[in-house]
Amino acid sequence: MKVEQLYGPKVKSFQVLELEYLLQEDSPELFFSFGLKKGGQVIVTHAPARLDIMGGVADYCGANVFEMTLDRTAIAACQAREDRNLCAVTLRAGSQFKSNFHFSLDSFYADGSLKTYPEVQEYFNQEPSTAWASYILGAFYVLLKEGKIDQFPHGATVVIKSNIPIGGGVASSAAVEVATLMALNQLYNLELDAMGIARLAQIVENRVAGAPCGIMDQVTAVAGTSTKILSILCQPDKILEFVSAPLNVSFVAVYTKVQRSTASTAYIDTRIGAFMGLTILKAAFASETASEEGSYAQKISDALAENYLCNVSVQEFHERCGPLLPEQMHGEEFLERYGEIVDTATQVEPEKIYPVKSRVEHMIYENARTQQFITAIKNAGKGPERIQDYLREAGNLMYESNASYRDLAGLGSPEVDGLVNIARKIGEQGGIYGAKITGGGGGGTVALLCHGNVENSLTQVLAAYKLAWGIDGELIRGNAVGAYEFGHILWELKESEPPTHF
Predict the structure, then answer these.
(1) Fewer Cβ neighbours under 10 Å: the N or C end of the chain?
(2) Do the strands 64-80 and 432-437 form a parallel or antiparallel pair, or are they unpaired?
(3) What sections of 146-208 are H helices per DSSP?
(4) Where is 159: in which H helix or E strand?
(5) Cβ contacts of residue 69 below 8 Å, gap of 6+?
(6) pTM for the full model?
(7) How confident is the model over 171-211, as pLDDT tens digits?
C-alpha cells in the first residue's frame, strides 16, 4: 500500500510512523471487511495522556487544577465508509479485548427516534470484551444527541492505536475520546472548537461509557501544549493560564502498575458523597438566609448557587459548613430528606452508607492547595535566589494532597503511599521535592516534583519500589502537543504498483 500525505505536519511521532508502516505493509489488522479499505483518504489525529500535578478529583466540584501533557498518545485513523456501518478497530494487544466491533448507525434509533443515553450505554456494555468501543463509537451517538449533526451521511471506520497505560491514572480514555472526536470533526466538517470537543468527550465518558470523570482530562488532551502546564478552572472548563515550569524543574510520572478506574466503586462513592454534601449545604443555607440576618449565610449560599463546592473557602468550611455535615449518611435517609443529587453522572444508592463530611473537606482543601501550589511554582520561576524555598513549599503541598486523598477522599493506595514515602526519603538532597497520587486515585500514577539532574534518584525510586512491592514501576517523561495544536494528517491510500521484472 502506498501512503501519500496530502496535509499535516511532516515531522511524525513514532506512533504515527508505526501506523504508516502497518498501512504500507497491508496489515490484516487494518484491512478487512469492517476495517479500512485499500484506497481513499484517511484522517489521522492524536491526543496525549495527562499528568495531574494538583487538583485531581476535585475537578467535578469546580476546583482549580494543574495539568500537563505526557509523551504518550492515542492516535485515531478515520476513513469514510460507503455503507452505514460504524466500525472500531483497536491495535492494542491483549486478550481482554476483542480487536474490532461494528454495528449500523440505525442501532442508535428505535421507532424513528434516537435512543436514550441509558439505552445506548446498555448496548455498548453487553459484552465486556467490546465495551472499549463505547469510548470511540459512542462519540457518534453523542454528536447526534447533542445536536452537533442532524444525521450522518455515511458510516466510518475508526482505528485506535495507543501507548497510554489503561488504568494508569493518566487519562487513557480521554485521549481516545478526544482523538476520535477530532477525526470526526474533520470527516464530517462539524467545525467544533477545542472546548466543544472537550465537553463532548466528557459526555461520551460519563453518559455512554458510564465513567463519571470530571473534565480536566479532556481539556488537557485537547488544549495542552508541549511547553507549558495548564491551570484550569473546572467551572466548567476555563483555562486560566499556561504556566512555564521553572528552569531545571521537571514533573515526572511514575506508573505504579496498580490498576485504577473512574468506574470503580470507591471513586464513584467519593463523588456521590461530595454531591450529597453539596445538597445538604445548599438546603441548610437556603433555609438560613430565608429566616435570618444572614449576610454570611447569603454569601455561602451564593457561592454554592452554581453547584461548585470549591467556591467555598477553607475558612467558610470550618466556620459554617463543616458543622452542618454528617460524618456519613445512609443513602435511603438522604433520598427521603433531600431527593436526588444534582450530579448527572452518578446516583445515590439507597442501601449504601456514604462518608460525606470528609469528602467535602478534601475537595475544598484540594482547591486551596492547588492555588497555593501554582503560586509557589510561578514564584520559583522568578529567580534562583529562593527557588528551593518555593519548591519546598510546593512539595509539601503535594505530600498534603497525597495524605488527603488517602484519609479524607478514601482514594489512597498502599503501593502509591509506599512510592511517595520512598521519594520523600530521597528528598530534596536527591532533587525530589514532592510526590503525590494523581487523577482518580486508588492506584495509577505518582507525580514527582524534581529539580536538577535526578537520574540517579529516579533509579533509586524504581529499585526501592520493586524491592518493597515486587512491581516494576515505569517512568513516563516528556510532553506532547495537545490534539488541537496537532490538528490532523490527511493520507491518500493507493494500491502499490506491482514490481516490474525484466
Answers:
(1) C
(2) unpaired
(3) 172-187, 194-203
(4) strand 156-162
(5) 48, 49, 50, 51, 220, 221, 224, 225, 226, 479, 480, 481, 482
(6) 0.95
(7) 999 999 999 999 999 999 999 999 999 999 999 999 999 99
**Which residue in 175, 73, 155, 42 sits closest to 106, CA to CA?**
155
pLDDT single digits (tens) 91-112: 976 657 789 999 999 999 999 9
Sequence-separated (6 or more) residues with CB below 8 Å from residue 389 = none
Q: Are 251 and 170 in contact (CB under 8 A)?
A: no
Cβ burial of 3 (10 Å; 0-12, 13-18, 19+) is middle
DSSP, residue by residue, 360-396: HHHHHHHHHHHHHHHHHHHHHTT-STTHHHHHHHHHH
Q: At what angle do helices 172-187 and 194-203 cross, to 10 degrees?
A: 120
| Peptide bond between residue 326 and the one before it cis (omega within 30 degrees of 0) | no
Report domain extents, the chain.
Answer: 249-262+383-476, 265-355
Question: Among all chains, which residue has been given the C-alpha cell 497520587?
Answer: 437
Which amino acid is residue 265, in one-letter code? T
Q: CB count, 10 Å around CB of 17?
A: 10
Q: Considering only CA atoms, which of 434, 439, 440, 444 is closest in space to residue 473?
A: 444
What CATH class has 249-262+383-476?
alpha beta
